[in-house]
Predict the structure.
Amino acid sequence: MPLQIDIITVVPDLLSGPFSHSIMKRAQEKGLLKVNVINLRDYTTYARAQVDDYQFGGGAGMVLMIEPLVNALESLTASCDYDDIIYVTPDGETYNQKTANALSLKNNLLLICGHYKGIDQRFRDHFVTREISIGDYVLSGGELAAAVLVDSIGRLIPGVLNDESSALTDSFQDNLLAPPVYTRPEIFRDWKVPDVLMSGNHKLIDEWREEQAIKKTEQRRPDLLS
């Protein structure tokens, strides 16, 4: 059974590209991943497909109303039991590879994309099971963050990558950054590929890669080693 990820958004066109190409496209064609983009405006009872309104108490920026969100959620949960209902938001837990690994083992995920100033807090309090941030910065909406989650989760599903061991050697999988990589030509403008990589000695190559990964992590992300 494929991992199903549903995404509620007010701008579905923003998500038409990320899942229509490359690895995510192949994952869906193989039947390993299913991504459904749901337009929140289809679930509002307000005129002109309104889904947002001014903040109570004043302040700049519009807020997504609770009613359309609940309407969409109740319609979806009538036929799907979600393992997690995730709101992507700058004030959520910081996303990392460990979280991606855990989410890739789920069966059904629902992502909620905020927009403008976010969503009514009552929806977060009563329905959201997890809140995730992809970094300490603010985007115009949650769509790009949702695309990041889907890509990072989807590539971990067994069978999605042609070589499954590739994901196991990515940065952060073992709390280390990935070592340097090289390809042809062996020599370019007097810049030569390290001799050990051309030696054919896989034990030495593995040792070199581990040493380089540790060295890079010490230099760039010493917090990972602690």
In short: The first helix runs from residue 22 to 29.
